[in-house]
Structure formats: structure tokens, C-alpha cells
Write a sequence for this structure.
């Protein structure tokens, strides 16, 4: 590894944020926040393959981009529609950008990387849920979560992205004052989605760069019991 890749500079961040919290009578509440952040010498995670054709020589490193910024809105709502039945929702909108920079390829040649969105910074995230609780102690809940596509982070100079996805989670159970038991199902429709991505050469004989992804959890189910003293 080249000497200038063994160290990196500190990152400086200026962050401005404002928001409001409001009660919706006695049935719920809502939150809204708006923010802007400006970064100098933005730290990012990347990687380099020290020896072409040898995947065992791949190293993860931290490097600096000249600058970057992010701005967005976060909002949430929780409301009881009727006695025992409530709904909730949240929404996040995000716009990020990093400055263009020059890095070296495996042969030491300079490569210009254009300005783009930050890695792992989806333009939107959203969630909605509904919960029912009966007077006898039974309950049921359903959650939907959604995430937009985002750039993978390793290495910094590629344009590989995830795909947008939506997950469904289910939960049902019985609750008493000092104990509860639940059955739950996560990722109910067994969605296939990526949470990390790595773009590098790992397969002979051609050793061509290829995207490898780390998948999120598949469908899972189980039981949870709790006791409060």
C-alpha cells in the first residue's frame, strides 16, 4: 500500500437543524425536522487491491474527499384512530453530494471521480404501521418499510447501486401487566435485497471487476416472551 494511503485527515462537519413537535389532541403526536450539514475533508471508506489478480491482497482503507454536503427532512406521525387501534408513519427525504476528486487505480494512474451522491444515503426512507390492541389483551401489528436505491461504498470510484425495496413485518400476541408473549414474522414475503456491495476482481482466470453483495436477512419467524418484575 502506498504511504499516502496509510493515514487520513480529520473530517470537519457543520450541522444546522430545526424542527417542531406537535400534540394532536390526546390521540397522537407529530414531529418534523429539517437539517443541513456541510463537510470538509469528508472521510469515506474505500478499498484497493494491492496485487492485480490476487484477491487476498485487497485492503479496506479510509480516505478523504475534499468536501460534501447533505440536506433533508425527517417527519413522523403517531395517531390513535379509535380506542385500541392506532397507526404510525415516518418519512425521510435526503439529498447528498460529495465533491469530485482524483484517485489512483491499481496501476498508479490518476482517475477522476465525478461528484455524486454519498454512499449508503438513500434519497428516501419510509415506514407505515398499524397496531390493534383488544381489551382482553390480544394484539396484532403490521409494519411496512421502504428504502430507495443507494450507492455502495467500496470502492469509492464505481457507480454500482442497490435496488429499492419494501419489507413487511407481522406481529401478534397476548399482553398482560407483568408478562407478554408474541409470535412474529419478519420480511414476510422473503424479499431479496442488498445492504452492502463490493466491486473488485475476485475470480480467475480473467480477474474482471464484479459486484459482490451482502444480502439482508431473509424471512424469519419466532416467538418472544417477556416477564416484568
Amino acid at each position: 500500500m502506498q504511504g499516502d494511503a496509510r493515514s487520513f485527515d480529520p473530517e470537519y462537519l457543520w450541522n444546522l437543524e430545526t424542527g417542531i413537535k406537535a400534540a394532536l389532541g390526546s390521540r397522537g403526536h407529530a414531529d418534523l425536522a429539517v437539517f443541513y450539514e456541510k463537510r470538509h475533508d469528508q472521510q469515506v471508506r474505500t478499498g484497493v487491491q494491492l496485487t492485480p489478480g490476487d484477491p487476498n491482497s485487497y485492503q479496506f482503507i479510509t480516505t478523504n474527499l475534499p468536501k460534501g454536503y447533505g440536506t433533508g427532512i425527517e417527519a413522523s406521525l403517531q395517531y390513535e384512530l379509535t380506542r385500541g387501534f392506532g397507526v404510525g408513519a415516518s418519512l425521510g427525504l435526503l439529498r447528498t453530494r460529495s465533491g469530485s476528486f482524483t484517485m489512483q487505480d491499481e496501476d498508479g494512474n490518476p482517475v477522476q471521480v465525478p461528484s455524486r451522491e454519498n454512499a449508503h444515503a438513500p434519497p428516501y426512507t419510509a415506514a407505515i404501521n398499524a397496531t390493534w390492541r383488544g381489551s382482553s389483551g390480544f394484539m396484532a401489528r403490521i409494519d411496512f418499510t421502504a428504502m430507495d436505491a443507494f450507492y455502495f461504498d467500496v470502492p469509492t470510484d464505481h457507480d454500482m447501486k442497490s435496488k429499492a425495496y419494501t419489507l413487511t413485518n407481522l406481529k401478534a400476541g397476548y399482553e398482560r401487566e407483568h408478562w407478554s408473549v408474541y409470535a412474529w414474522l419478519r420480511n414476510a414475503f422473503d424479499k431479496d435485497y442488498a445492504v452492502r456491495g463490493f466491486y473488485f476482481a475476485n475470480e480467475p482466470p480473467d480477474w474482471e471487476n464484479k459486484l459482490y453483495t451482502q444480502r439482508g436477512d431473509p424471512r424469519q419467524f419466532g416467538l418472544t416472551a417477556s416477564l416484568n418484575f
Notes: The CA atoms of residues 2 and 50 lie 9 Å apart.
